[in-house]
Amino acid sequence: MVRQALPLELKISWDFSWNIRSELAARAYNQAEKFGAEMLITKGIRHYCNRKPYIVKFENGSEIPAHTIVIATGADYRRSQQLKNLTRFGGAGIYYGATFIEAQYCTGEEVIVVGGGNSSGQSAVILTKTTKRFNILIRSACLAKSMSRFLIRRIEETPNILLRPYTEIVELKGDNHHHLQSVRWQNSKTSNIEEHNID
Fold it and tell me: For 7-29, how does the pLDDT look when each residue is reduced to its tens digit (9 = 90+)?
């Protein structure tokens, strides 16, 4: 029996509708609690797994014994060191995930996603249902080395997704209220620079 567990990470296929996913996540959480799991979201600094029960030590010095440990580290996004004002627009035009909430914010808008990994592909699949146009900027020639074939096929079949190979953002512009207003990107093969206004 699971006595205590660290953050439960539930991965669900992107093909489910949002309502089904929310309901499924709630059911999984309730089911885990019924089996005695305690959900704790904190930062563990060390774990000892050489004997049972396992021990997890936290920042504040406390320790918890556990028969099972689920480590859900989340994502660590690489941020461009060349874009000097990237952090200025965090939450005001720059986001690090695509959820139902972002899909609502982007209804009828043009969206830019940087990167060619599976997270970018999943974002494309989610957001193209509500957006006018979806740009995927990648530094390489294609998605084949970094994305699953399933997502590549979905992207190829979606007419409002534009894949922009050999492309990266070179400048972010905004207003005095720290809202992103335009993005400039450059194709490394042609050196062509385009500027896109953010509505």
Answer: 333 333 333 344 444 566 677 77
